[in-house]
Design a protein that fits this description.
The complex is a heterodimer of chains A (175) and B (291). By secondary structure, chain A is mainly α. Chain A is built from eleven helices and no strands. The radius of gyration of chain B is 22 Å and the shape is elongated. Classes of the chains: A mainly alpha (175), B alpha+beta (291).
Chain lengths: 175, 291
């Protein structure tokens, strides 16, 4: 007997939210740390995203790639400040504390090691997201474009712009 | 190479990633809280839905091709979301309400009007209400008593706290003052009841729907709306427009207002026209319908 793919059955084998969280949460947290540069902000971002995901689980699990869908939601929430009150809170706190020690107060050794990490924070969020998706998540440009909701060409140009900024800043810093 | 340094930087910071376990628990707790809040808000919206704006949902759903995926058909049709406020006249079970949907869609005001305004058919009632109150009515929804009764029974009846005892002109039943459980057929036949008491039934139904566990499940919600049935709820006005408003209302706060007089005096009509009811409600707390 020849058995072809059974689209009806495969469509019904939808992953549950709990299964999804089991497999995806650690990776999402790592991704969020790279995006935000800070474990606490990353935690907030992931929590905020996953609550939404769980509330809309039916739509998420019905999408072509739940994984990509969630990454898109998380990335957009990271990029778009206006939407999330948690983020505004974070920013306000940061603004209200101008005396906060700059990372440069660390030992010189760790400053050098973490120069790129520090510089990443100065990039526009969209550019940082593109860098993380390519150099951390190792995604092809087409998938990055999908997550960022833009054209592949835009992905490439924002990555090269980001790299140029980083290079220039590194040269500047090494003087 | 900066690319390699980037990869190394990311890898170096990987160990800072917080552990997933505790965060998962936090997410679940936050989810439960949110869902509870949303269910309450949404169910209140659904109650009105059933009663009011989303009375159009079954109609709209029936109009949509069942085979079409929801997302496509919703996003595929450019919904003419009118930015302004909407006034929807609701006629049902001896009760006349204007559902005022503010432009920001954050609240839903149910303004209970005198049932004396409902004479003749929906079109006549609409004209009467419009002339008396000076409000532009964007749509009229007629909810018949049996649809309301079915919905009421589906949530196991409602507790209504009546201010005055009365004998119903509908079923001859004696209704005592005070809080009591009413099944659907009794709740919708309160002819002769105090105006505010009848409006209280709507408030009680909204509250009951809000606490119904069924309301946390969209599928159950659909079933609830289906209960209203196409025949039990008729609507004129732009379905797409109302549906868009109804969807926006899912997280709205429902505020019941009992109009002080048929002409919506005391600034109520003006506040409604100006889409400024929040201020009016704050200044006139006694007109807010307590449950």
């Amino acid at each position: 007997m020849i058995r072809g793919p059974d689209p009806v059955v495969s469509a019904e084998v939808a992953v549950t939210y709990q299964e999804f969280a089991d497999t995806q949460l650690p990776g999402l947290l790592r991704y969020a740390v790279m995006l935000t540069g800070d474990p606490h902000t990353a935690e907030d971002l992931v929590q905020d995203t996953m609550v939404r995901v769980q509330l809309n689980w039916r739509r998420v699990s019905g999408s072509e790639s739940p994984d990509g869908y969630v990454r898109r939601v998380l990335t957009n929430r990271f990029i778009d400040l206006r939407r999330g009150s948690w983020w505004r809170r974070v920013l306000l706190l940061a603004d209200a504390d101008p005396t906060r020690a700059a990372p440069r107060d660390h030992a010189q050794d760790s400053v050098d090691r973490d120069q790129i990490w520090t510089l990443l924070a100065t990039l526009p969020r969209r550019q940082r997201a593109a860098l993380v998706l390519r150099y951390y998540e190792d995604l092809p440009d087409a998938e990055i474009a999908d997550i960022l909701g833009c054209a592949v060409g835009t992905v490439r140009s924002s990555i090269s712009r980001a790299l140029a900024t980083l290079r220039a800043d590194l040269v500047e810093a090494s003087r | 190479m900066i690319e390699e340094e980037l990869r190394a930087t990311f890898a170096r910071h990987e160990p800072e990633t917080p552990a997933a376990g505790p965060i998962r628990d936090k997410i679940n707790r936050a989810f439960v809280r949110r869902k509870r809040r949303r269910a309450a808000a949404r169910a209140a919206g659904v109650a009105t839905a059933v009663l009011v704006a989303a009375a159009v949902v079954p109609v709209a759903l029936a109009e949509r091709r069942p085979a079409a995926p929801v997302a496509t058909s919703l996003s595929g049709t450019p919904a003419p979301v009118r930015p302004g406020a909407l006034n929807i006249l609701v006629l049902g079970a001896d009760t006349v309400l204007v559902a005022h949907v503010p432009a920001d869609r954050r609240q839903l005001y149910l303004i209970g009007l005198s049932s004396s305004l409902a004479h003749g058919g929906p079109a006549v009632s609409r004209r009467t209400v419009s002339q008396t109150t000076g409000l532009a009515i964007d749509a009229t929804a007629v909810v018949d008593a049996s649809a309301l009764a079915r919905i009421t029974d589906a949530v196991g009846g409602v507790e209504v706290c009546l201010a005055k005892a009365f004998t119903s002109g509908g079923n001859g039943r004696r209704y005592r003052a005070g809080c009591q459980d009413l099944k659907g057929s009794d709740a919708v036949r309160m002819r002769g009841a105090d105006e505010r008491d009848r409006q209280r039934y709507f408030a009680a139904l909204a509250a009951k729907l809000a606490s119904a566990r069924a309301m946390t499940d969209p599928r159950e919600m659909q079933a609830m709306l289906a209960l209203a049935g196409r025949s039990g709820v008729t609507v004129d006005g732009s379905t797409a427009e109302l549906l868009a408003a109804a969807r926006a209302l899912h997280s709205a706060v429902v505020v019941g207002i009992s109009a002080p007089d048929p002409a919506l005096g005391g600034g109520l009509a003006a506040a409604t026209r100006a889409d400024n009811l929040a201020e009016w409600v704050a200044a006139n707390p006694s007109s807010v319908l307590e449950r």
